[in-house]
Write a structure and sequence with these properties.
Length: 224
C-alpha cells in the first residue's frame, strides 16, 4: 500500500480530549483522583466523542474549537453546540487550576481586580456568590471585556466567548464537578477553587493576550 493510500485511511477527528496539565491526583485533597476519573475520563471524554459524531459532514468539521463554539451557537442551542461548548469549557477549567494554586492574584491582574471589584476579598466573595447563584448546571467565569474585568455566570454549555468576552478563569459548577468530594456543598467547592486552586499564571497569560489584541482604547482597532 502506498503512502498516499495510507493517509486516506487514517481516521481524522475534529475534536480531541486534551492531556491533563497535571496528574489526576495532583489537586488532592481539594479535588480527588476519583473525581478526575469521572469528570475528565468520562464526562469530558463523552462530550468529545459525541461532538465528533455530530460534527461529521457539517460545515464545522475540521474547524478549530473556538470557531466551532461560536459558529455552532449561531445555529442555536442544541446537541451540537452543547457538546462542543462543553469541550471548550472543560479544556479551560483544567487549565484554570494548578497544584499549589490560589493565593493572591499577581500584577497586572491584582490592580485590575481592585479596580473592578474594590478588593481581592470582594472579588472572591462575588465569584463564590455568582457560582452559588447559578441555578442548576453551569459555569462561573472571570472575564476581560474591552479591558475591564467582570464575573459572568453561564448555564449548561454556554460561555462568554459567544458574547465576545475573553475568559481568564472558569470554575465548573455542574454537580459532577464537586459532588463526590463536596456532596451538595457548592459554596465550599467554590471557596476552595478561588483560595487553593485558581491558576493565576494562566489568568494573567489570558489577560495579556486579550490586552494585546484589544489595544489601549478598549477595542480591537489596532491602536496598541
Ligand atoms: Fe464538568
Amino acid at each position: 500500500m502506498s503512502q498516499a493510500q495510507l493517509k486516506t485511511t487514517e481516521a481524522t477527528v475534529t475534536f480531541t480530549l486534551p492531556t491533563l496539565p497535571y496528574d489526576k491526583a495532583a489537586l488532592e485533597p481539594h479535588i480527588s483522583a476519583k473525581t478526575f476519573d469521572f469528570h475528565y475520563g468520562k464526562h469530558h471524554k463523552a462530550y468529545v466523542d459525541k461532538a465528533n459524531e455530530l460534527v461529521k459532514g457539517t460545515p464545522l468539521e475540521g474547524k478549530p474549537l473556538e470557531v466551532a463554539v461560536v459558529e455552532s451557537r449561531k445555529q442555536g442551542v442544541g446537541p451540537l453546540f452543547n457538546n462542543i461548548g462543553q469541550i471548550y469549557n472543560h479544556n479551560l477549567f483544567w487549565l484554570s487550576m494548578a497544584p499549589n494554586g490560589g493565593g493572591a492574584a499577581p500584577s497586572p491582574l491584582a490592580e485590575k481586580i481592585n479596580e473592578a471589584f474594590g478588593s481581592f476579598d470582594a472579588f472572591k466573595e462575588q465569584f463564590v456568590a455568582a457560582g452559588v447563584g447559578q441555578f442548576g448546571s453551569g459555569w462561573v467565569w472571570l472575564v476581560s471585556s474591552k479591558g475591564k474585568l467582570e464575573i459572568v455566570k453561564t448555564a449548561n454549555a454556554e460561555s462568554p466567548l459567544t458574547d465576545g468576552k475573553t475568559p481568564l478563569l472558569v470554575c465548573d459548577v455542574w454537580e459532577h464537578a464537586y459532588y463526590l468530594d463536596y456532596q451538595n456543598r457548592r459554596a465550599d467547592f467554590l471557596k476552595v477553587f478561588v483560595e487553593k486552586l485558581a491558576n493565576w499564571k494562566f489568568a494573567v497569560q489570558n489577560y495579556k493576550k486579550d490586552a494585546e489584541m484589544t489595544g489601549s482604547c478598549g477595542t480591537s482597532c489596532g491602536c496598541g
